[in-house]
Amino acid sequence: MDKVTPKDVFQANRDRAAPLLKQLRADGIGHIIDGKIVPSISGETFETKSPVDNATLASVARGNAEDIDRAATAAALAFKAWRDMPAAMRRKLLHRVADAIEDRADDIAVLECIDTGQAHRFMAKAAVRGAENFRFFADRCTDARDGLNTPSDEHWNVSTADLLAQLVKQAGVPDGVLNTVHGIGEEAGKALTEHPAIKAIAFVGETATGAAIMAQGAPTLKRVHFELGGKNPVIVFDDADLDRALDAVVFMIYSLNGERCTSSSRLLIQQNIAEKFIEKLTARVKALKVGHPLDPATEIGPLIHERHLAKVCAYFDVARKDGAVIAVGGRTHDGPGGGHYVQPTLVTGAHGKMRVAQEEVFGPFLTVIPFRDENDAIEIANAVQYGLTG
Questions:
Q1: 277 plus 191 within the same structural domain
Q2: Neighbour-count burial for 274-300, b at 16+ CB within 10 Å, e otherwise
Q3: Interatomic CA distance for residues 323 and 10, integer angstroms
Q4: Given 113, 141, 261, 313, which residue is catalytic?
Q5: Which of 93, 120, 130, 269 has its C-alpha lying 20 to 30 A from 253's C-alpha?
Q6: What is each CA distance from 8 to 16, 17, 22, in whole angstroms?
């Protein structure tokens, strides 16, 4: 039997994606409200595009306050029957959802790659993790009446969120229990956070947006669960296993394109090992492969949107003006399809008060800051406006 090569896998991923993308373009993406696929009441749409080549993936229903109200009404009507359903039945249905996600895991992976630019090596298991989350909550259905609140930080993007809603219906979850409305934050998002029938909001995103959501939900006393911005540190002391530390540093910022709130975008390195460690780190960052997200060899794909690419690139000049050194990267990358590619960037010669050490870049951009001792490391780590994830 012939050995499967990375080139074979790349082509297989493209072949899997092709009919899914064709169907997306033909069908478009509507809201799913009370179990039915519906357009916006206004009839308005927007286009969702791939960061790989800026090609239009689908025309998407553009929801507004009327659509949010329709979805909230459907959810309210479905709530009592869902609440009163025996816990064992709810558990069974949620496990069916997990089964359906696992059955379509490969489809979800390639769609997420094309929709978001994330490398397939990371997306290949994303759906499996999503299924595990459904199983986690399914097995806690029997404890739901005890008042235990176990929110999830799981989030799905436009194309995969639409597929998830279809899988939920396929699994037998009653109509109205899950409703999806697509739209712009200032329109559908604002209406969602202000709607009196909605009791809780979960949000993953930028800190200023989270603050706005909290303010908008305050008059109706909404509970909120946020995963917001961060400037998390990896702290490496001179007694660390430096090879393992190097692996951790690279993974925590350059995986998932650096586009996650839990990325560790600061490296705090003890002064007496800084030079040697940075030399090894520089070589690792230079070796990272930027490429098409469906290529199994790719480690960094295109960034999510051209506006975000511009934001990340703006920090190259910020670093230079701060007096830091761009040791690796610091420019866009001519990737396949001409999409929103950027070189993985490593900034050295920084200190904790520089903007590149204080502000979330949300990309493959690492700032290195030396420290003297444990007290100095703790002070630097905490001297940012964000909470920390380690």
A1: no
A2: beebbeebeebbeebebbbbbbbebbb
A3: 41
A4: 261
A5: 130
A6: 12, 14, 22
Is 275 within the bounds of a domain? yes
Q: How many residues does the chain have?
A: 390
Contact (CB, 8 A) for 20 and 300: no
**122 found inside a domain:** yes
Cα(127)–Cα(309) distance, integer angstroms: 26
CA dist 231 and 389 (Å) reads 8
CB atoms within 10 A of CB 48: 18
**Within a 13 Å sphere around the CA of 188, how many CA atoms are in the beta-carbon half?**
21
Distances, alpha carbon 32 to alpha carbons 157, 284, 359, in Å: 15, 45, 37
What is the distance, to the nearest Å, from the Cα of residue 276 to the centroid of all Cα atoms in its chain? 33
pLDDT digits (tens, 9 = 90+) for 6-42: 999 999 999 999 999 999 999 999 999 999 999 999 9
CA 8 remoteness from chain centre: 28
Residue where a domain terminates, one of 172, 197, 222: 197
The yes-or-no answer on residue 313 being catalytic is no
Percent with pLDDT over 90 in the chain: 92
Domain of residue 63 covers: 6-197
Q: What pLDDT shows up at residue 387? A: 81
Structure tokens at 15: 């072949």
For the record, the structure tokens of 216 come out as: 């908008």
Residues 358, 203 contacting (CB under 8 angstroms): no
Of the candidates 44, 132, 227, 359, the residue annotated as catalytic is 227
Tokens of 323: 């007096």
Is 360 in contact with 230 (CB distance < 8 Å)? Answer: yes
Please say which residue of 169, 197, 225 terminates a domain. 197
pTM over 0.85: yes
Indicate whether 153 pLDDT > 60.
Answer: no
Q: Percent helix, strand and coil across the chain, each rounded to 5?
A: 50, 15, 35
223 inside domain: no
Between CA 379 and CA 27 the distance in angstroms is 54
Considering the domain architecture, whether residues 168 and 255 belong to the same structural domain is answered as: no
Residue 54's closest CA among 102, 105, 115, 6? 115
What's the domain count of the chain?
Answer: 2
360 a catalytic residue: no
